[in-house]
Amino acid sequence: MFDNPKIRINELSVGYDDGTQALSDVCLDIPENAITALFGPAGGGKSTLLRTLNRLNDLLDVSISGEVMLDDTNIFDRNVDVISLRRRVGIVFAQPIPLPFSIRKNITYGLELAGERRRAKLDDAVEGSLRSSALWDEVKDRLDDSANALSGGQQQRLCIARVLALAPEVLLLDEPTSGLDPISTAKVESSLQILKQDYTVVIAPSSIQQTARIADLAVFMLQGELVEWGSGEDLFSAPREKQTEEYITGRFG
Amino acid sequence: MIRLSRHHTERIVFAVIGLASVATAVPIIIIVSSIFFSGAEAVSWQFLLEMPRDGMRSGGIWPAIIGTIYLVVGTGLISIPLGVASAIYLSEYAADSYWTRMIRLAIVNLAGIPSVVYGLFGLGLFVLFLDLGSSIVAACLTLSIMTIPVIISTAEEALRAVPQSFRVVSVGMGATRWQTIRRVVLPQALPGILTGVILGLNRAAGETAPILFTGAAFFLPKLPNSIFDQTMALPYHLFVISTQVPEMPITIQYGTATVLLAFVLIMNILAASVRSWQRRKREW
């Protein structure tokens, strides 16, 4: 179905130090320039999987086995530079969490960390990434205002923009529209459709409906296991597994 | 047995609580106002900026003021970097292990030690063993040991109050741990840290016992020239002129107390305004 995997996950298992097994033997190829949507009931391991893909779980005590190949490198390899991995694989969280800076500084923060000092470069990144996340027109006249002055929907698009400013290859989104109203949600979704032309997008959507709307590859996860995956249309029109069908039709979850 | 209605109980409880708060405020108001009232006539530019004369019975208290400023600045130079660095370590880097628990326990206990014990410890370690003599540097080191626990615990609290999500976001954008601390966590915690620093130094400015054996002089005819000289200091000077000098004019005693009190009060007001600035500035 997709013959251009950007990320190949092989027998990935993740356990937290309190003994819960968040992921068991997950195998999945994530295609380039497409939207891969992980969906399923809460506690299915979607967030864990996303946070494993840029090793953000390193901050917690987790035990990991298996491998995640990004292009041709295993990201758990000893000589992988975690900092540059996180720059290649950016993440957007469920809650929009702007850093306590101005709008502009939120965008330039990641680039400045990487050592970019040139004003012109930073300005270009600010405009480019805000345009990509469909926020530019709303904030272009007040870039130096506090990011907290923005509405929830604007904050979330700012959070997407600041990840885009780093020019990542993969964009991870963990329920990015869960706190947003329908109009803001539509804006984020339509910007994702444009973004997938340049990025590999992996998203845990906020709802089944959203999964159906945006997924090129839909992946159903249940209690840390992949139950079934397939192209968005196939999976929603003709699920193969009973559990998938029951979840989609609203019998549980 | 009389049963009171809920309404009456409420009134009685409010009255008791209200009285308790008045009772705590009244002595402070009396002390401060009586000292300021009696000391105001002694305080003048001459009093502040002149050397003492006639065995301290006239003239000013300039060497004691400048000495206290030296001690506070010196103590700050030692205790702020050490205290803030320890707080960063405890809050951001240290795992919850046996050793960090021991460190925390030590900090809590240090904060409860009577100040005269610090003085004797400073005498033993800095003055005698390290042979620094009774000097500004020995006094500053002693005061630092007393101040550091205050700075560590308030700074650690301020650092922990910064939401964890900021750290996750920053690291998620490719920041190292130190970049995250320096660019996000520290600026957000700064007002809280400053409050702790001011409160700690405030205590250092007002204490007599720790400097008694380590650097405070009874009387010096001239200002100290180096950090290895002794110095006069306001709290010790007040003690001296109140108890050790016969026929001391009472106005000078009150004047000195007024200056010391004003010094500490100004630092307290500074701490309070830093705190309110922090609340207005905070974005979470």
Structure report:
The complex is a heterodimer of chains A (253) and B (284). By secondary structure, chain A is an alpha/beta fold. Helix content of chain A is 36%, strand content 26%. In chain A, the strands form 2 sheets. Chain A has a 6-stranded mixed β-sheet, with helices on both faces. Chain A has a 4-stranded antiparallel β-sheet with strand order 2-1-4-5, covered by helices on one side. In chain A, helix 7 (182-195) links the parallel strand 7 and strand 8 (200-204). In chain A, helix 3 (103-113) packs across helix 4, helix 3 runs parallel beside helix 6 and helix 4 packs across helix 6. The mean pLDDT of chain A is 86. Chain B has 284 residues and is an all-alpha fold. Chain B has a single domain, classed as MetI-like fold (Orthogonal Bundle), CATH 1.10.3720.10. Chain B is 74% helix and 1% strand. Chain B has helices at 6-39, 45-49, 62-93, 98-111, 115-129, 136-161, 164-172, 177-206, 209-212, 234-243, 250-281, and strands at 52-53, 58-59. Chain B is globular. Chain B starts with 5 loop residues before the first helix and ends with a helix. The interface between A and B is medium-sized, with 24 and 20 residues.
